[in-house]
Each structure stands twice: as structure tokens, then as C-alpha cells.
Amino acid sequence: MTSFAPLHRLVIVIAVLASFVTFLDGTVVTVALPAISRELGGGITTQQWVVDAYLITLSALILLAGSVSDAYGRVVVMRVGLIAFGIASVAVAVAPDPLILIIARALQGAAGALLVPSSLALITATMRAEVQSRAIGVWTAFTTAAMLVGPLLGGLFVDFLSWRFVFLINVIPIGITLLLLTRLDLPQHPRGIRVDWWSGALCAVGLGAVVFALIEQPNLGWQSPAIWIPGVLGAALFALFLIRQHRSPSPLMPLSLFRVRNFGWGNLATLFVYAALALNGFVIGVYLQQGAGLSATAAGLASLPLTILMILLSSRAGAWAGRLGPRIFMTGGPLLMAAGALLLLTVASDFDYWWQVLPAMVVMGLGLSLTVAPLTSAILGAIDETRSGIASAVNNAVARVAGLLVVALLSTIVGGALDLDGFHNAAWVTAALLALGGIVSWIGIRRNPVEAADSDQADARA
Q1: For residue 42, how many other CB atoms are within 10 A of its CB?
Q2: Torsions phi, psi of 353, nearest 5?
Q3: Number of compact structural domains in the chain
Q4: Which of 84, 207, 254, 275 could form a disulfide with 406 if both were Cys (CB 3.0 to 4.6 A apart)?
């Protein structure tokens, strides 16, 4: 961080803290799911909804939030999001039954949608080229660490206090971020940008209905009108959303962005990689408690190697990608993670973390460290800074939708029960998704022209 200018350091810290809140709360819940289910009931369906209620609103509204961020200013939108997220977190913590908990989680996701695109857009709007790549590397290291350290923090709270305190962890970073925002002085954004509220509604309702059908299908069956009607209606509404994006003068998800090579192929790689990460995180957090008999804290500690490696290597990987181009990292990283996922097939009924899980976590951590910063930099670096807010929102929406759908399909993936066979099924699917992410990156990703030119100039000066 010492190599950044003072304004850049302040922007990075704010962006990291604001995103940290969202990512932490999205993953900290994983190890709390068994405790929530024991106290409030509902089994695996409640567990899926606790995760997906958050992801539905986060995924569906993050596009709208990106447009709002560009229209009304990133600092204002971020401040509103932080305050709303804090209020929703308290509501989750005091929820008396599954329904209230799920509704509060949905509100939490809606508030989180305001934070991610506006925070990352601060970086992409104030920095370019190699400085931006390094900044995104720092942002990626700490925000991804939030995703990975979340289960550990959640486990400690579950074991020594209550699962309810899990959702109050973010109070301190919210307060610090609100304070730092008062020190950030950026030019005002133009206010002539139109926000397509109808598209936001079509996306939210469409995604929500499809996910409802996917989660409840194992309980009611596809022949039930309560399943196929929401499924068909949701798919139709989402199709209308895409049609509207093609025709709208101010689309939430400009389809023209996908004609930019690295943006289009990079988002396809994002879909596969983040679906794999969401599936692996859910399965590890729940199976190690319910199947292997570990405590919530021990289950959270299982992913600690990934956190350490991300913190140590992500910033460097971002800088390397800025000099060498992202393609090799976006190909090799997911393939390395796929190998790590296959190592989880060694998990047996005679459970041993050190020989069956730790090697997989180390290999996956190395692959993840090489992947995420170059992936983010390649996608956002391909888009002009004037559209950085919406580009960031689209990429984050793709990542959240990937997690949303794979968790909704969890029962189908594991075969109805998260036992040892189900755990192995999930490992196979995780490895396949990661391999697809690497293959897609090799086929589609190329070096951004601006980055290549800057690197050539740096080499010439040297």
C-alpha cells in the first residue's frame, strides 16, 4: 500500500471495507447453518433459503445499484448502503423464526447490492493501467479473504456465543467506513443518467421465482403447480428483462458490454469459477459439521489456508497480470483449483482433516490466489472508466447469480442428502466447473490493449 498515492490508499481502504462487509456476511453464515436449523427448524431447505434469500436480492439488485451509483455518485450510494446493511443485520440477529430470518436476509442482500459496485467502481474510476491492477489485487486479497475467513469467525461465534452474533460482526467495519467516507473528496458525477427501475423489478422477481422453484422442487416435485408455475413465470420475466436491456436507452445490463472480448469471456469464466466457489464453501461448511462431526470453529478453520494464501499472493498476482497479461493466470489458476477439488475425493468415513482436506485447501488456495485479481482486472480493465460502475455491477451480478443457482441446485447436486456420497458428488461438480472456467479463459481472454501499451512503455524505459 505504501507505493500508492494518498488518495489511492484512501480509496482502496474504503473500497475494501465496504466490500468486506458484504462478502463477510455472505460467507460467515455457512458454518452457522446447522445451528440455525437446529434452533429454528426446516432442515436443508431452511439452510438453502438463508443463503439464497441474501443472494437473490444481492444478485438481482446489484445491476440496479450499479446504475444508481453512476447516476447519483458512488459515495452517496455507499453511505446509504452501509446504514441499511447495519439495520438489516440487527433484524437478522433477532429473528424469531425462519420466515422473519429469511426476509431480513433478503433485505440485507438488497443493502449489500449498493456496496459492491460502488466500492469497486471507486477504484476503477480513479486508477488505470498497472496501478489499477495492483489496487484490484489488494481489493481482491482482502475481500476474498473476507469470504474465506467468514466461516472461521462464524464458527467461533456459534461455538462460544450464539449464531445470532454472527450477523453483528460487521458493525465495526461499517462504522469505520462511514467515518472514512467523510474524508473522501471526489468530483460529483453527472446526474443526467437515467435509472431503469422496471428492469430492476423484472430481474429481481424473475430470479426470485426461478430460485424458489429450484429450492422447493425436491419437496414438491416438478409436477406441482407451486413449482412449475413460478419456474416458468420467473424464466419469462427474466427473458423480458434481457429483451428490455437490448431495447432500453439506459439499460441496467448493457448487452453491448459483452461484445468487448475480455468482458464477455471473462464473465463466462466468472460464472463457472464463482459457482464452484459457492458450492465448495457451502458443502465444506455444512458437511464438516454434520458429516465429519467437527465443531463450528473447526469447520471454519478448515478454509484458513485459503485465506492466508489469498492475503499473501493476490496483490502480487494482480501486479504480475498487469505486466504479463491475465490469460495465463486465469487459465492455470482455475485448473489448479480443479485439482484441489478432486483431492477432496479422498475424504472418507474415517475422517482425517490433515490428510484428506488440508492438501485440497492448499492447492485450491494457490489456484484462487492466481485467479481472482487477474480475472477482475481483465474484465474491468477492458471497459472505459465512464462505465466502470455498471461494468463492476454486471461482473458482480454474474458472480452472485452463479452462487445463487448452484446453491438452489444443491439437493440435485448432492443427490438429496449431504452425506459422504453427496460430498463426493459436490467435489466432482466443483472440479468440473473450475476446469470449464480455465478452458473458457484460455479460449477467450486476451491482453487489454491499454495494459499492453503501458507495459511496453515501461519495458522501454527500463
Answers
A1: 17
A2: -60, -45
A3: 2
A4: 275
As given in the structure block, the three cell numbers for residue 307 are 485465506
Q: Which amino acid is at 419?
A: D
Placement of cell 485439482 in the chain? 339
Q: Are residues 354 and 396 in the same domain?
A: yes
The model's pLDDT over 317-357, given as tens digits with 9 standing for 90+, comes to 777 777 778 888 889 999 999 999 999 999 888 888 889 88
Question: Residue 228 is part of which domain span?
Answer: 197-249
Burial of 65 (0-12, 13-18, 19+ CB in 10 A): buried
Which CATH number goes with the domain that contains 60?
Answer: 1.20.1250.20
Joined together, the cell numbers standing for residue 108 give 440485507
Are the beta carbons of 409 and 309 closer than 8 angstroms? no
178 lies in the same domain as 205: no
pLDDT tens-digit readout, 259-313? 888 888 989 999 999 999 889 888 887 888 878 878 878 877 777 787 778 777 7
Residue 379 CA to residue 43 CA, distance in Å, equals 38
d(CA 322, CA 326): 7
Do 112 and 207 share a structural domain?
A: no
Any domain includes 190: no
Cell of 338: 480443479
Q: How far is CA 261 from the centre of its chain?
A: 22
Contacts of 259 (CB under 8 A, 6+ apart): none
Residues 262 and 221 in one domain: no
Do the domain assignments include residue 192?
Answer: no
